[in-house]
């Protein structure tokens, strides 16, 4: 296995990270107090005790209501700023962070407050030597019209985010539902990725559609391509990156999917390791590396390859990316 210092120190990109999923219990309580919101818990221990989930849907049912404590631009800035500080400690040199505007606009928060707050944190991270960008995600359990409307409203700020993604509950919400929004994103020069979650019904078909019809450049999760040799071949040929999240997988599927990750790595798929929602799943990115390395007895070379993959499949500028490798 590898040492803790190696896991933390190796330069890496984090490409599958939901900023809302970095809301730690102490900040949650602090913002609840600041904004006069009763979240039903009064201490870190009570908040942690409420984190009981064993599936994507039971996780999302805890995750979305908690976001109510985020009310103004400064709150989004505080959340982003806290994550980037953690990322630096974890050896992250490049962070591409998802955010869910609809989870905030749907409860009356202005889109501008969300984007400007997060973007202030991005600028601060850059000043501190961490290359960072934002990825706007559509909530797939909301309507296609809502996604389109959200993207249109965000386009005036398009210099503040690098791409679009797709998250929330995949069941009955295939990616082609959002074809129009993805088209509009690409027309505006935005990059495209999407969650193709593990163990969801129809996920293999969704992956194929994402790659062949919707212009997905990466797959978030997506390790179940292993069920289909043709898909593995396609992903290798196209150089499509996979963003895996071992500790998140353990919660959502009761399995880390470590064997799949190692197998795909061996077959030349550009798979990377990420933390997804670290405040909820028990560890930031270096802990995800450590946990996986221990479970699968990874060599230093395998860990280095996973870290290198993350930088290679990142959307940093070419010159910046070369300098990180
Ligand atoms: N939102 C935050 N984390 C997610 C995940 N793992 N899958 C889908 N939507 C999410
Ligand atoms: Zn995710």
Automatic annotation (TrEMBL):
Domain named Adenosine deaminase: residues: 11-325
Organism: Dermabacter vaginalis
Cofactor or coenzyme needed: Zn(2+)
Protein name, per record: Adenine deaminase
Gene3D superfamilies to which the protein is assigned, alphabetical: Metal-dependent hydrolases (3.20.20.140)
This enzyme's EC code(s): 3.5.4.2
Residues annotated as binding Zn(2+): 16, 18, 195, 276
Manner of cofactor binding, per the entry note: Binds 1 zinc ion per subunit.
Function: Catalyzes the hydrolytic deamination of adenine to hypoxanthine. Plays an important role in the purine salvage pathway and in nitrogen catabolism.
Reactions it catalyzes: adenine + H2O + H(+) = hypoxanthine + NH4(+)
